[in-house]
Design goal:
Protein name: Signal recognition particle receptor subunit beta
Largest sheet: 7 strands, mixed
Order of helices and strands: HHEHEEEHEHHEHEH
Keywords: Endoplasmic reticulum, GTP-binding, Membrane, Nucleotide-binding, Receptor, Transmembrane, Transmembrane helix
CATH class: Alpha Beta
Mean pLDDT: 76
Oligomer: single chain
Number of strands: 7
Pfam family, one: SRPRB
Structural class: alpha/beta
Number of helices: 8
CATH superfamily: P-loop containing nucleotide triphosphate hydrolases
Helix content: 40-55%
Number of domains: 1
Family: Belongs to the SRP receptor beta subunit family.
Transmembrane segments: 20-41
Length: 255
Amino acid sequence: MAGGLEPHLEALRRELRGPAVLSVLVALIAVAITVLIWRFVQGRRSSRKAVLLLGLCDAGKTLLFARTGFPQSVITGTPGSGVVNSSLLVFQSTNVTLIDLPGHESLRLQFLERFKAAARAIVFVVDSVAFQREVKDVAEFLYQVLVDSTVLRNAPALLIACNKQDVTMAKSAKLIQQQLEKELNTLRVTRSAAPTSLDGSATGGPAQLGKKGKDFDFSQLPMKVEFVECSARGSKGEEGEADLEGLEKWLVKVA
């Protein structure tokens, strides 16, 4: 009986050494690697729990932060610069920490450097009323954020919050997007060429923003970018009812 089984066993051994089994093993290894990469990416994302509020001075970040409707805001003192008295506003929950970073020019990049690695998402607040006057400064700061190597690598979700929409002269989110894309494209063109040393060799320039050879638009970025219109003030100023529905829905989504 054993002799009768031997041919079948030998055929089975040959099948196990055949190309079909090899294909199955390769597929299983590929699946295992994909699962490991997915777990690694998810682990990195879950370790990044900060949502950073960025923007120029007087864009309305702090009032917007205070009126989001999220509970128990905590004020943590931080050292001033000698120019302005700075404080850091923090909302902490189980899933995310919402951090309002100072908008003063002498402080904003310093605080971005401190918190950028922990950013799961970024809210960039724009003063929709003063936008036409401040567009170059807004684009300059946003450009510095978008070409940062850590931000590019982690690709946190980005929301451009067009604040102060309760004011008649406020610019729409669509116009703000178009003007920012135009200004960012200009900045990219003027800064894309790497500086050269005295011997003519390149010394290295900033990261490329968007796709080379094409006019810049936000869809070219590695992170998802959304625009929302909002107002931290109501029709009666700070006592009025804020319009932050779009912002709050976005915060819940990224949390």
